């Protein structure tokens, strides 16, 4: 009898859309957390895929985490759907003074909300930033902020037309 009432309520909610229409939209908060690594592996799904017991999967994941081989888990986004579809690889040339401590300036730049990744380079350029924004106007604002910093001698920007693969996942 109890199960029938639950089934009836579920049908009403689904039919009227009441359950989902009254839900609070926390999508932006979730996206922020997922970017910071608040994702967990789906152990049951992994177990089915590789045909191993979930306890074995769990043990090995914990071991890899403890060894530092797994640093975090993160979501792979469709960036257009979260207003970050404009992607630019920004190459930076540092002044001689800033180049003496490239870790400091790259760590500071990596803290910008729009910077997805920051890498130190050997060669013509010193740092490459992967910057994600809503559009070119938003990128231009980020670029102006970066150029205003002390220690930046020059830049080159390469705009990504379409991402094919990221984090080992084909899109």
Walkthrough of the structure:
The protein is an alpha+beta fold and 171 residues long. The chain has a domain of 83 residues: Lrp/AsnC effector binding domain/regulation of amino acid metabolism (RAM) domain (Alpha-Beta Plaits), CATH 3.30.70. The chain is built from eight helices and six strands; from the N terminus they run H-H-H-H-H-E-H-H-E-E-H-E-E-E. Strands 2-3-1-4 form a four-stranded antiparallel beta sheet. It has a two-stranded antiparallel ribbon with strand order 5-6. Strand 2 and strand 3 form a beta hairpin. The N and C termini lie far apart (46 Å). The mean pLDDT is 87.
CATH topology name of the domain at 79-161, in short, is Alpha-Beta Plaits
Distance between the termini: 46 Å
- Rounded Rg: 22 Å
Largest sheet: 4 strands, antiparallel
Q: Under the CATH scheme, which class of the domain at 79-161?
A: Alpha Beta
How many β-strand stretches? 6
The average pLDDT value, as a whole number, equals 87
Uncertain spans, ≥5 residues at pLDDT below 50? none
> How many helices does DSSP assign?
8
**Helix content bin:** 40-55%
β-sheet strand percentage: 15-25%
Q: Say which CATH homologous superfamily of the domain at 79-161 is assigned.
A: Lrp/AsnC effector binding domain/regulation of amino acid metabolism (RAM) domain
CATH architecture of the domain at 79-161: 2-Layer Sandwich
Structural class: alpha+beta
Strand line-up of the largest beta sheet: 2-3-1-4
The 3D shape can be described as globular
**What string, H for helix and E for strand, traces the elements in order?**
HHHHHEHHEEHEEE
């Amino acid at each position: 009898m109890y199960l029938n009432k639950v089934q009836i309520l579920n049908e009403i909610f689904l039919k009227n859309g009441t359950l989902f229409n009254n839900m609070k939209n926390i999508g932006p908060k979730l996206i922020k957390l997922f970017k910071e690594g608040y994702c967990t592996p789906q152990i049951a799904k992994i177990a089915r895929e590789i045909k191993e017991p979930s306890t074995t999967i769990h043990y090995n994941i914990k071991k890899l985490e403890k060894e530092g081989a797994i640093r975090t888990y993160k979501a792979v986004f469709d960036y257009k759907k979260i207003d970050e579809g404009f992607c630019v690889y920004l190459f930076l040339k540092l002044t001689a003074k800033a180049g003496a401590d490239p870790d400091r300036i790259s760590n500071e730049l990596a803290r910008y909300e729009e910077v997805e990744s920051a890498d130190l380079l050997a060669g013509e350029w010193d740092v490459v930033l992967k910057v994600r924004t809503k559009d070119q106007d938003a990128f231009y604002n980020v670029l102006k902020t970066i150029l205003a910093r002390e220690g930046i001698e020059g830049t080159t920007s390469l705009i990504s037309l379409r991402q094919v693969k990221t984090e080992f996942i084909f899109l």
